[in-house]
Amino acid sequence: MQEITAKQVKELRDRTGVGILECRKALEATNGDMEAAIKYLRERGIAKAESKASRQTKEGLIHAYIHFNGRLGVMLELNCESDFVARTEQFKKLAQELALQIAATNPLAITSDQIDPVIIEREREIARNKAINEGKKPEIVEKIVEGTLKKFCSENALLEQELVNEPGVTVRDLINSTIAQTGENIQISRFVRYALGEE
Fold it and tell me: Which UniProt keywords apply (predicted)?
């Protein structure tokens, strides 16, 4: 079996807009054949998920999760295109999984570009000073800083987080999988997490 390279995964991702994990699976299933991998994704409805991203989501639900001890809660607005999909068990299950993810990880925002720039700058400064204090060469300090920031965003932006109960699969992958199954665009509009005693 041909080894799949990061370059191949990136090319397939650029061409289809599908998540890295799904791209790698498709390439492995088609022995690295790019056109066959695109066909593989389309047949499974995954590539369609990304093409639906521009469609309006005016329906959906507000989902509330309260932890069993009453000390932690999450409210989430999850949107889709039709009331029919919003009422399905699959959609409600997705809302519950997302609420549990938020409760467990306390993300700062839905996407990395929504994270407060002040926080990003603070993390950038910390990473730079740490690298300098560790005696890293000036030419690699910026690479270290960018790598650290990328990791910070993947841990603090909800869509980029790995699922708590399924490492290797991101929240975005989970939503795209549901989009492929329902045939509708699905978006997280907003969320809030409450923990007793926290500001």
Answer: Elongation factor, Protein biosynthesis
